[in-house]
UniProtKB/TrEMBL annotation:
UniProt keyword Magnesium present: no
Full protein name: Zinc metallopeptidase
TM helices/strands, residue ranges: 7-25, 121-143, 150-168, 201-225
PANTHER family attached to this UniProt entry: MEMBRANE PROTEASE YUGP-RELATED (PTHR36434)
Entry keywords, A to Z: Membrane, Transmembrane, Transmembrane helix
C-alpha cells in the first residue's frame, strides 16, 4: 500500500519564498520606474559616489564598474565600491540613490560602525552554517541516543548563526540608507522631490532584506518543529 505523508511545515517554506519573491519584484519595479528619471544635475552614479566619498574624507576607496543589474556592493576587504551596469554610468535618480547607499557602507567601514563589523565576523560562520546545518540534522535523525541529539542541536545552532547574520544585516542596511538620504539632502546633489524618489527606491530595497530575514526565521522554525519530537524522545 502506498502511504502519503503530508508535511505541513512546507507551508512555512512556501510563505518565506513568496515573501522574497514579492520583495524582489517590488524593488525591481520601483528601481525601473526611477531609473528613467534623470537627475537635475546630470551626475552619474559613479560621480555621485566619488563626491560622497570625498565629502566624508574617504580617499582610499576605489569606485569600480561591475557587471550585472543591482549587483552593487561595497567590499571592505579591498576597499572597492562596485556599481553595476544600471548605476555606474546612469544619471538617474535611482542610480544616484543606490550609489549613495553603497557609499553609506564605505562610511560605516571607515568609522568602525559596530553592526558592520559584527556582520563581517559572522560571514564565514553563516556560510558554513547554512551549508552544514541540514546534513548534520539529517544524519542525526538516522542515529540514536546522545549522538543523535548532539548532531541535531548542532545543526540547529549552525542554522541559527545564518539567521543571526540576516538579522544583523538589517540595521547595517537601514543605516546605510539613512546615511545616503542625509548626504543627498545636505549636499544639494538632488532636489527635495528627487530625494523623495530615492527614499522610495531604498525603502523597496530594504524590504528585500526584511524578506530574507523573515524567510530564514521561518526555515529555522520549521527545523525546530521537525526535530522537536525526536529531541524530546532522546
Amino acid at each position: 500500500m502506498f502511504y502519503y505523508y503530508y508535511d505541513w511545515t512546507y507551508i512555512l517554506v512556501l510563505i518565506g519564498a513568496l515573501i522574497c519573491i514579492a520583495a524582489s519584484a517590488r524593488v525591481k519595479s520601483v528601481f525601473n520606474r526611477y531609473s528613467t528619471v534623470r537627475s537635475h544635475t546630470g551626475m552619474t552614479g559613479r560621480e555621485a559616489a566619488e563626491q560622497i566619498l570625498r565629502r566624508n574624507g574617504i580617499y582610499d576607496v576605489q569606485v569600480v564598474h561591475i557587471a550585472g543589474n543591482l549587483t552593487d556592493h561595497y567590499n571592505p576587504g579591498n576597499k572597492t565600491l562596485g556599481l553595476s551596469d544600471t548605476v555606474y554610468n546612469s544619471a538617474s535618480v535611482a542610480a544616484i540613490g543606490v550609489a549613495a547607499h553603497e557609499c553609506g557602507h564605505a562610511v560605516q567601514h571607515a568609522t568602525g560602525y559596530a553592526p558592520l563589523s559584527i556582520r563581517g565576523a559572522l560571514v564565514p560562520v553563516a556560510n558554513f552554517g547554512s551549508m552544514a546545518a541540514w546534513p548534520l540534522i539529517i544524519i542525526g535523525l538516522f542515529m540514536n541516543g546522545e549522538t543523535s541529539a548532539f548532531l541535531i542541536n548542532l545543526g540547529i545552532l549552525l542554522f541559527s548563526a545564518a539567521v543571526l547574520f540576516q538579522l544583523v544585516t538589517l540595521p547595517v542596511e537601514f543605516n546605510a540608507s539613512n546615511r545616503a538620504v542625509k548626504v543627498l539632502e545636505s549636499s544639494g546633489m538632488l532636489y527635495p522631490d528627487e530625494v523623495g524618489s530615492v527614499k522610495k527606491v531604498l525603502g523597496a530595497a530594504a524590504l528585500t532584506y526584511v524578506a530574507s530575514a523573515a524567510s530564514m526565521i521561518l526555515q529555522l522554525l520549521r527545523l525546530i518543529i521537525l526535530t522537536g519530537g525526536r529531541r524530546r524522545n532522546d
